[in-house]
Design a protein that fits this description.
With 266 residues, this protein is an alpha/beta fold. The protein has ten helices and nine strands. A seven-stranded mixed sheet has the order 4-3-2-5-6-9-7. It has a two-stranded antiparallel sheet with strand order 1-8. Helix 7 crosses helix 10. The longest helix is centred in the C-terminal third of the chain and has 13 residues, at 200-212.
Length: 266
């Protein structure tokens, strides 16, 4: 029996009711193209392949990767296995020209934020994402301005996707059981970007500076990239704090940064 490895953040789903609820929410159809992040023992891999999909699974743990094809039996003919780090594989490189990807995964808690930023970085390549995550992370993704959970993850994910929390999964649904509750979430890339014309990298720069020390006023938090005149043009009060800004506010700040990306104060 494979022993869960802490360095990989492994908590394997074993509850059949939770697994079936996830598959029902995903609603896989034959000949759709899927990418699964961290298939582990194949709890989702097997029912996805049984539904007739074409699946690329990315597994960092080489022992698990070696055992996965046998675990999938005859359906393994539609399985493409990549042994390595999902962060090293852009989704656009895995998509067919005529069919965007559907992404699924039970993401390791210790890498959830980097993986979320990576998996949502190319929204045109993805139809939807169904991910099992720590409940706190899902709460942060969908948080509204002014709430304690609102932060960098909230702004960047909402700029790329619509966040649809689905249901919770108790710790007992996993082996080993984590110390937290998990939540299954659906992310749907926006057909029309909510911040048209705003460069993703510019937005990421502004958001990172704004939330680096969230108790700072924007005048101080953004002083190295945006001066007072830029804040005024963006219609954002210099004394305001990042946690109170809406997505549209951040969009206007990012547009100002795009126009003049040189440091405001050296």
């Amino acid at each position: 029996m494979h022993q869960a490895r802490r360095r990989f953040g492994q908590n394997f789903l074993h509850d059949p009711q939770v697994r079936q609820a996830m598959i029902s929410a995903i609603d896989p159809r034959a000949e759709e193209t899927f990418v699964e992040i961290g298939p582990g023992h194949g709890a989702l891999t097997r029912p996805l392949l049984a539904a007739g999909v074409r699946l690329t699974a990315i597994e960092l743990d080489r022992d698990l990767a070696a055992a996965l094809p046998d675990a999938c039996g005859g359906d393994a003919s539609r399985l493409t296995l990549i042994k390595g780090d999902a962060l090293a594989h852009p989704l656009s490189g895995l998509a067919d020209a005529d069919q965007p990807l559907r992404v699924v995964g039970n993401l390791p808690y210790n890498l959830s934020s980097p993986l979320l930023f990576h998996l949502t970085a190319e929204p045109a390549a993805v139809t939807d994402l169904h991910l099992l995550l720590q409940k706190e992370v899902v709460d942060r993704m969908g948080a509204e301005a002014g709430s304690r959970a609102y932060g960098r993850l909230s702004v960047m994910i909402q700029a790329r996707c619509r966040v649809v929390p689905l249901f919770e999964a108790p710790a007992q649904a996993f082996r080993p059981a984590p110390r937290v509750t998990s939540r299954f979430v659906r992310l749907i890339p926006h057909d029309k970007p909510p911040l048209p014309g705003v460069d993703d990298k510019a937005l990421a720069t502004v958001v990172s500076h704004a939330f680096a020390q969230r108790r700072k006023t924007l005048r101080n938090a953004l002083r190295r990239i945006l001066d007072a005149a830029a804040l005024e043009r963006a219609q954002v009060a210099p004394a305001e704090r990042a946690e109170n800004l809406t997505l549209a506010d951040f969009g206007r700040l990012a547009a100002e940064y795009q126009r003049n990306p040189t440091p405001a104060v050296r």
